[in-house]
Amino acid sequence: MSHVHADRPVCEGIGMCETQANEYFQIGDDGVVDVVTSDIPDGDRAYVRAAVESCPVSALRIVD
Question: pLDDT by residue (tens digit) across 13-60?
C-alpha cells in the first residue's frame, strides 16, 4: 500500500490538494496542509496522485 506525505514547511496553504481530494488533505487552522488519511488504497492511487500533482509548490509526494 502506498502512503502520502506532506512537507509542511514547503506548503503555502493554497489548497489545491484539499479541493481535489478532501478525504486525504485538509488545510489546517495554521494555513498548512494536514494529511487526513496517509494510507492510499490501490483504487484511490490515481485520484490521490492527481491531487499531489496539483500542488504548485510540490509539497506532497506518494511513497511506495
Answer: 999 999 999 999 999 999 999 999 999 999 999 999 999 999 999 999
Question: Could you tell me the sign of the dihedral formed by the alpha carbons of 50, 9, 1, 36, in that order?
Answer: negative
User: Quick one: cell of 30?
Assistant: 495554521
> pTM surpassing 0.90?
yes
> What are the percentages of helix, strand and coil residues in the chain, rounded to 5?
25, 25, 45
CB of 40 closer than 8 Å to CB of 24: yes
Q: How far apart are CA 40 and CA 31, in angstroms?
A: 24
- How many CB atoms are closer than 10 A to CB 54? 15
